[in-house]
Amino acid sequence: MFENNLTDCKCCRLHASAKTVGVNYRGAENPHIMFVGIGPGPEEDEHGINFYGRTGRLLEDCISKAGVRQEYCAWDNVVKCFPNDSGQIRNPSKEERWSCAPYLFRNIEKHDPKVIIPLGNIALFALTGLKGITKYRGQRFIRRIGSKDRVIVPSFHPASALRGQAGNKDFITQDILHAWRIANAHPSQPPSLFPPS
Hints:
Blueprint: H1 14-17, E1 26-27, E2 33-37, H2 42-47, H3 54-65, E3 73-77, E4 84-85, E5 88-89, H4 94-111, E6 115-118, H5 121-128, H6 133-136, E7 141-145, E8 148-152, H7 158-162, H8 168-183
Parallel strand pairs: 2-3, 2-6, 6-8
Antiparallel strand pairs: 1-3, 4-5, 7-8
Protein backbone atom coordinates (compact mmCIF):
# COMPACT_ATOMS: atom_id res chain seq x y z
CA MET A 1 0.00 0.00 0.00
CA PHE A 2 1.27 3.47 -0.93
CA GLU A 3 2.27 5.46 2.17
CA ASN A 4 2.16 9.25 2.36
CA ASN A 5 5.15 9.09 4.69
CA LEU A 6 7.93 7.41 2.74
CA THR A 7 9.88 6.39 5.84
CA ASP A 8 6.90 4.20 6.87
CA CYS A 9 6.73 2.45 3.51
CA LYS A 10 6.52 -1.35 3.50
CA CYS A 11 5.20 -1.68 -0.07
CA CYS A 12 7.91 -4.19 -1.01
CA ARG A 13 10.64 -6.21 0.63
CA LEU A 14 13.38 -3.62 0.08
CA HIS A 15 12.57 -1.85 3.35
CA ALA A 16 13.48 -4.94 5.38
CA SER A 17 17.23 -4.78 4.67
CA ALA A 18 17.64 -1.02 4.17
CA LYS A 19 19.47 1.11 6.71
CA THR A 20 17.52 4.11 5.42
CA VAL A 21 13.91 3.45 4.43
CA GLY A 22 13.02 5.98 1.79
CA VAL A 23 16.06 7.81 0.39
CA ASN A 24 13.99 10.51 -1.25
CA TYR A 25 14.19 13.43 -3.66
CA ARG A 26 16.80 16.11 -3.06
CA GLY A 27 17.56 19.32 -4.88
CA ALA A 28 15.84 22.41 -6.26
CA GLU A 29 12.19 23.03 -5.48
CA ASN A 30 11.45 23.55 -9.20
CA PRO A 31 14.49 22.20 -11.04
CA HIS A 32 15.53 22.84 -14.60
CA ILE A 33 16.91 19.28 -14.70
CA MET A 34 15.83 16.29 -12.62
CA PHE A 35 18.07 13.22 -12.68
CA VAL A 36 16.43 9.85 -12.05
CA GLY A 37 18.64 6.88 -11.19
CA ILE A 38 17.91 3.27 -10.28
CA GLY A 39 18.04 3.29 -6.49
CA PRO A 40 20.27 4.12 -3.54
CA GLY A 41 23.65 2.41 -3.36
CA PRO A 42 25.40 1.41 -0.13
CA GLU A 43 26.73 4.92 0.55
CA GLU A 44 23.34 6.50 -0.11
CA ASP A 45 21.72 3.88 2.14
CA GLU A 46 24.24 4.67 4.88
CA HIS A 47 23.80 8.46 4.74
CA GLY A 48 20.22 8.74 3.53
CA ILE A 49 21.14 11.08 0.64
CA ASN A 50 20.56 10.43 -3.08
CA PHE A 51 23.68 10.25 -5.28
CA TYR A 52 25.97 10.65 -2.29
CA GLY A 53 28.63 8.14 -3.34
CA ARG A 54 31.09 7.73 -6.23
CA THR A 55 28.42 7.78 -8.92
CA GLY A 56 27.03 10.99 -7.46
CA ARG A 57 30.43 12.64 -7.48
CA LEU A 58 31.00 11.61 -11.10
CA LEU A 59 27.57 12.97 -12.05
CA GLU A 60 28.32 16.25 -10.27
CA ASP A 61 31.54 16.51 -12.28
CA CYS A 62 29.56 16.01 -15.51
CA ILE A 63 27.07 18.68 -14.42
CA SER A 64 29.94 21.09 -13.77
CA LYS A 65 31.62 20.33 -17.11
CA ALA A 66 28.33 21.00 -18.89
CA GLY A 67 28.35 24.46 -17.31
CA VAL A 68 25.22 23.80 -15.24
CA ARG A 69 24.94 24.99 -11.65
CA GLN A 70 23.77 22.35 -9.21
CA GLU A 71 21.21 24.64 -7.59
CA TYR A 72 19.16 24.21 -10.79
CA CYS A 73 19.19 20.41 -10.46
CA ALA A 74 17.47 17.68 -8.48
CA TRP A 75 18.09 13.97 -7.90
CA ASP A 76 15.73 11.04 -7.37
CA ASN A 77 15.55 7.29 -8.00
CA VAL A 78 13.11 4.71 -9.32
CA VAL A 79 13.22 2.86 -5.98
CA LYS A 80 13.80 4.52 -2.63
CA CYS A 81 15.55 1.76 -0.67
CA PHE A 82 18.90 0.06 -1.33
CA PRO A 83 18.22 -3.00 -3.53
CA ASN A 84 20.54 -5.66 -2.18
CA ASP A 85 20.82 -9.30 -1.24
CA SER A 86 23.00 -9.73 1.85
CA GLY A 87 24.70 -6.41 1.14
CA GLN A 88 25.34 -7.12 -2.55
CA ILE A 89 23.80 -4.50 -4.81
CA ARG A 90 21.39 -5.72 -7.48
CA ASN A 91 18.82 -4.30 -9.86
CA PRO A 92 15.35 -3.88 -8.34
CA SER A 93 12.70 -6.34 -9.44
CA LYS A 94 9.68 -5.35 -11.50
CA GLU A 95 7.49 -5.64 -8.39
CA GLU A 96 9.83 -3.37 -6.43
CA ARG A 97 9.94 -0.79 -9.22
CA TRP A 98 6.15 -0.67 -9.52
CA SER A 99 5.74 -0.44 -5.74
CA CYS A 100 7.96 2.65 -5.65
CA ALA A 101 6.64 4.29 -8.82
CA PRO A 102 3.99 6.42 -7.06
CA TYR A 103 6.68 8.15 -5.01
CA LEU A 104 8.70 9.05 -8.10
CA PHE A 105 5.66 10.27 -10.00
CA ARG A 106 4.48 12.27 -6.99
CA ASN A 107 7.87 14.00 -6.82
CA ILE A 108 7.77 14.80 -10.54
CA GLU A 109 4.29 16.26 -10.17
CA LYS A 110 5.22 18.26 -7.07
CA HIS A 111 8.53 19.71 -8.31
CA ASP A 112 7.63 20.06 -12.01
CA PRO A 113 11.11 19.76 -13.58
CA LYS A 114 11.61 21.34 -16.99
CA VAL A 115 13.55 18.30 -18.22
CA ILE A 116 13.97 14.83 -16.73
CA ILE A 117 17.13 12.80 -17.37
CA PRO A 118 16.63 9.08 -16.69
CA LEU A 119 20.01 7.51 -16.04
CA GLY A 120 20.39 4.02 -17.46
CA ASN A 121 18.01 1.34 -18.73
CA ILE A 122 15.85 0.87 -15.65
CA ALA A 123 15.06 4.58 -15.28
CA LEU A 124 14.57 4.87 -19.05
CA PHE A 125 11.97 2.09 -19.02
CA ALA A 126 10.23 3.43 -15.89
CA LEU A 127 9.71 6.85 -17.48
CA THR A 128 9.23 6.07 -21.15
CA GLY A 129 8.53 2.35 -21.57
CA LEU A 130 11.55 2.17 -23.90
CA LYS A 131 14.44 -0.29 -23.70
CA GLY A 132 17.97 0.38 -24.92
CA ILE A 133 19.81 3.29 -23.36
CA THR A 134 22.58 3.19 -25.97
CA LYS A 135 20.00 3.62 -28.73
CA TYR A 136 17.96 6.36 -27.05
CA ARG A 137 20.43 8.43 -25.03
CA GLY A 138 20.57 12.10 -25.93
CA GLN A 139 17.21 12.06 -27.71
CA ARG A 140 14.21 14.13 -26.69
CA PHE A 141 10.94 12.40 -25.74
CA ILE A 142 7.60 13.66 -24.47
CA ARG A 143 5.69 11.51 -21.98
CA ARG A 144 2.58 12.22 -19.94
CA ILE A 145 3.44 11.99 -16.25
CA GLY A 146 0.88 13.28 -13.80
CA SER A 147 -1.04 16.32 -14.99
CA LYS A 148 1.16 17.31 -17.94
CA ASP A 149 3.53 16.26 -20.70
CA ARG A 150 7.16 16.00 -19.58
CA VAL A 151 10.35 16.43 -21.59
CA ILE A 152 12.70 13.47 -21.14
CA VAL A 153 16.32 13.22 -22.32
CA PRO A 154 17.84 9.82 -21.37
CA SER A 155 21.52 9.30 -20.62
CA PHE A 156 23.89 6.61 -19.38
CA HIS A 157 24.01 5.88 -15.69
CA PRO A 158 27.22 7.33 -14.20
CA ALA A 159 28.01 3.94 -12.68
CA SER A 160 28.72 2.69 -16.21
CA ALA A 161 31.61 5.15 -16.46
CA LEU A 162 33.04 3.68 -13.27
CA ARG A 163 32.81 0.12 -14.62
CA GLY A 164 35.24 0.54 -17.50
CA GLN A 165 33.11 2.53 -19.95
CA ALA A 166 34.96 5.78 -19.31
CA GLY A 167 33.73 7.32 -22.56
CA ASN A 168 30.21 7.38 -21.17
CA LYS A 169 31.23 10.30 -18.96
CA ASP A 170 31.56 12.50 -22.05
CA PHE A 171 28.18 11.33 -23.33
CA ILE A 172 26.55 12.11 -19.97
CA THR A 173 28.06 15.61 -20.05
CA GLN A 174 26.76 16.13 -23.61
CA ASP A 175 23.29 14.95 -22.64
CA ILE A 176 23.18 17.28 -19.63
CA LEU A 177 24.13 20.20 -21.86
CA HIS A 178 21.43 19.18 -24.36
CA ALA A 179 18.84 18.99 -21.57
CA TRP A 180 19.95 22.37 -20.20
CA ARG A 181 19.52 23.99 -23.60
CA ILE A 182 16.04 22.50 -23.92
CA ALA A 183 15.11 23.67 -20.41
CA ASN A 184 16.20 27.21 -21.23
CA ALA A 185 15.04 27.44 -24.84
CA HIS A 186 13.22 30.62 -25.82
CA PRO A 187 9.55 29.88 -26.62
CA SER A 188 10.09 31.02 -30.23
CA GLN A 189 12.99 28.56 -30.61
CA PRO A 190 11.83 24.92 -30.54
CA PRO A 191 14.03 22.66 -28.38
CA SER A 192 14.74 20.48 -31.42
CA LEU A 193 17.05 23.24 -32.68
CA PHE A 194 19.52 22.23 -30.00
CA PRO A 195 21.15 18.86 -30.75
CA PRO A 196 23.67 17.33 -28.36
CA SER A 197 27.08 19.00 -28.66
